[in-house]
Specification:
Shape: globular
Strand order of the largest sheet: 1-2-3-5-4-6-7
Low-confidence stretches: none
Radius of gyration: 16 Å
Order of helices and strands: EEEEHHEHHHHEHEH
Structural class: alpha/beta
Distance between the termini: 40 Å
Mean pLDDT: 86
Helix content: 25-40%
Number of helices: 8
Length: about 200
């Protein structure tokens, strides 16, 4: 594993002042960050979110997915708790990259769902690699988390990294006509847990 810590600084946001910790993976030519608030190294369970980069949803306010809404909800929850960590991983498009994601969008425009579109492009349904989390977790001394996720793969990845999942907290945001099929596919084909959605 080549992921290594680089530097930290303060990061004021709309939800409060976080600390931003930078990590690099030269082998994959990727840079990742973790936003923390409060003391996350005291051994107590940390409210945490593993968030994969989504330029279209996080920065361009796309309604095709729920990524931007989940990012905001997680930062707000951490701020309200006064303590937590958000891992922002540069794994755009479930690991296929931004331009391939745009190609997948074009296939979705023609009727494919998100999984079918990835597979038509020759990729797996979800190419993300969560092993990159281990050095970040070790650097921040996080051993137990209350994980905000609907994705059982993230639970399994943290457990594989030796982190205890004290609680899984569902993270549901509003559905809209543009992301309804996307959310249905997450549940039906990727095993995301939506049984507690109202």
């Amino acid at each position: 594993m080549t992921t290594r810590y680089v530097e930290s600084s303060r990061l004021p946001t709309a939800w409060g002042v976080f600390d931003i910790h930078g990590f690099e993976d030269p082998q994959a030519n990727k840079e990742h960050v973790v936003l923390t608030m409060g003391d996350v190294s005291d051994g107590e369970p940390v409210l945490a979110r593993i968030h994969s980069e989504c330029l279209t949803g996080d920065a361009l306010f796309s309604m095709r997915c729920d990524c931007g809404n989940q990012l905001e909800a997680a930062l707000k929850a951490i701020s309200e708790a006064g303590r937590g960590a958000l891992f922002y991983l540069r794994q755009e498009g479930r690991g296929i990259g931004l331009l391939n994601k745009i190609k997948a969008y074009k296939l979705q425009d023609a009727g494919a769902d998100t999984v079918e579109a990835n597979e038509q492009l020759g990729f797996g349904a979800d190419m993300r690699d969560y092993t990159i989390l281990k050095p970040m977790l070790e650097h921040l001394k996080i051993q137990k988390v209350r994980l905000m996720t609907n994705n059982p793969r993230k639970v399994a990845a943290l457990e594989a990294a030796g982190v205890e999942i004290v609680e899984r907290i569902p993270l549901h945001t509003a559905c809209n006509p543009h992301n309804e099929k996307y959310l249905q596919t997450k549940g039906a084909k990727l095993g995301h847990l939506f049984e507690d959605r109202e």
